[in-house]
Amino acid sequence: MPRAHARPSIRDVAAAAGVSYQTVSRVLNEPSLVRAETARRVLAAIDELGYRPSRAARSLARNDSMMIGVVRVHAALVGPHLTSLAIDEGPSAAGTRPRR
């Protein structure tokens, strides 16, 4: 049963679909490993509950936050300024956008 105070979790989806949370994960990440009927049940539960994967949980599981931390000193100098500008514009050129 979904918790009333929080967004639905992968375990809530699993309970609604009658499968394990590992099966829900497989449906989301490796759907070819799951029988079609099971995948349909999981996807229906996802829609019904309004589940959205947590980026924070994914970052922890994969040990990859896709973030860069920068500490700037003397930002008015040309070298550090150009470096900061490149860091800001790099993700945009790669098709992602930086978060601040």
Task: Please give a handful of descriptors for the protein shown.
100 residues; 5 helices; mainly alpha; elongated
The end-to-end distance, rounded to whole angstroms, is 35 Å
Overall outline: elongated
Largest sheet: none
Order of helices and strands: HHHHH
* Secondary-structure-derived class: mainly alpha
Uncertain parts: none
Which band does the percent of strand residues land in? under 5%
Radius of gyration: 20 Å
**Roughly what is the average pLDDT, rounded to an integer?**
83
Total beta strand runs: 0
Helix content: 55-70%
- Total helices: the number is 5
Structure description:
With 100 residues, this protein is mainly α. It has helices at residues 10-17, 21-29, 36-49, 55-62, 78-93. Helix 1 packs across helix 2 and helix 1 packs across helix 3 (36-49). It starts with 9 loop residues before the first helix and ends in a 7-residue tail after the last helix.
SSE order and pairing:
Layout: H1 10-17, H2 21-29, H3 36-49, H4 55-62, H5 78-93
Summarize the structure.
With 100 residues, this protein is an all-alpha fold.
